[in-house]
Amino acid sequence: MAKTEWWFRQNGSTSFTLEVLSASYTTGRKTQYDTYSPGGLTFTLDNSNNYAANFNLSDVITLNESVSTDVFQGYFWVTNIEYFDEGNTGMGSTAVVTCTDLLGRLGRTQVFEQNLSTQPTLDQLFNEFNPLLPSISFMFPMSPGDSTAAGLTSYTGTVLDRINLNLATEQGALVQFGTDLWLFARSDLDDVSTGITFDRTASGPSQIGYSGLQRSGLGENYINAFTVTPTVATPQNAVNAAGQSTYGIYTGELASVDNSTAQALGLAQWMTYSRNDPADLSFIITFSDLNNDMSDFYYALSQRHFGITVKYKVPAGSVTKTDYQLIQGWSMEMTPQETTFTLFTSPLTFYNFFTLDSTTLGLLDTSRLAW
């Protein structure tokens, strides 16, 4: 398989790919319970000739790949440089440049006593905060949102903090691609399948062979009591009594911007219902571009698709098991010789909802549900 050639550019045009010794990239989150934190790009430069002097705070760095003809695009902003100088002639000196992604910029974008009107969760984020994004960036809600975010006469905080509150209320997701931010309601998440399967062996561009698969289940994902604490309504709690009788008490909680006690209670019940199976698994998947055709993977990311199929066998087992998962976040380590990837996933069943036509959650087939 052809390894990925990564191209690095500064402020849209100046290529410095030949100066890069290695790089690392992170985006998203590790689990469905985590908030979204800034990701970014870190790269190590050959600084024997002081090339790092060309970089300034907030320079825009673009990262592109060669496999899919520049389909994958990442945009970042320079935030820090560390210099590692060698003695004598200085040959062999390096510099490490740290760049943040769009979430990092929004985590440093503070609003003070801003009035927020009551709106669907994703519409509120777009209408109130899209004008505060960097000039090259835009916020795309895939739908208005399935829940309603409460208004506030005076919101003080970062844009990223409010994004996390609204997405917790919505139980949706976000994806960064290129210069922009894409927001997904819970009911949007049945339409994000990549068509890619991860299995023990590679087979063409739509089946990626993993080098390692970590399965996490039991108490890691299981909940049978949940408390939601809204900003404008009283806290609400839901309990799965049958689950507590069987397994004991496993609680969870979150802060929300639900606009009513009824909606907050519905969210608490939803969380208890959708996480009620201790057999549900999350995965950490590792793989390399040396052993796989990465073209479909990069293309899927460019289309903001992050639903995958995972196939595995338990050790010494003969039966192949299949799980449908959503990528919550991922990272990669890049060198001229190889790029290695780590994906963090959660079960698609955590976003269970009824739809008339779903290839993964069921089809309405006249008088019955069918697959």
**Computed Rg:** 22 Å
Q: So what's the oligomer here?
A: single chain
What gap, in angstroms, lies between the N and C termini? Answer: 35 Å
- Count of helical stretches: 6
Q: How many DSSP-defined strands?
A: 27
Residues in helix, %: 10-25%
Largest sheet: 14 strands, mixed
**Class based on secondary structure composition and strand pairing:** alpha+beta
Gross morphology is: globular
Q: What is the average of the pLDDT values?
A: 90
Q: Could you tell me the strand content as a percent range?
A: 35-45%
Low-confidence runs of at least 5 consecutive residues: 354-363
Topology (SSEs and partners):
Blueprint (H helix, E strand, L loop, with lengths): L5 E5 L3 E2 L4 E9 L11 E7 L13 E6 L7 E12 L9 E7 L1 H6 L2 E7 L2 E2 H9 L9 E3 L6 E2 L2 E7 H12 L2 E5 L2 E5 L8 E7 L7 E3 L2 E5 L8 E6 L5 E4 L1 H7 L3 E6 L4 H14 L7 E7 L6 H8 L4 E6 L8 E14 L4 E9 L9 E2 L3 E4 L2 E3 L1
Parallel strand pairs: 10-14, 15-16, 15-22, 18-20
Antiparallel strand pairs: 1-2, 1-5, 3-4, 3-23, 4-7, 5-6, 6-7, 8-12, 9-11, 13-14, 17-21, 18-19, 21-24, 22-23, 23-24, 25-26, 26-27
Helix pairs in contact: 2-3
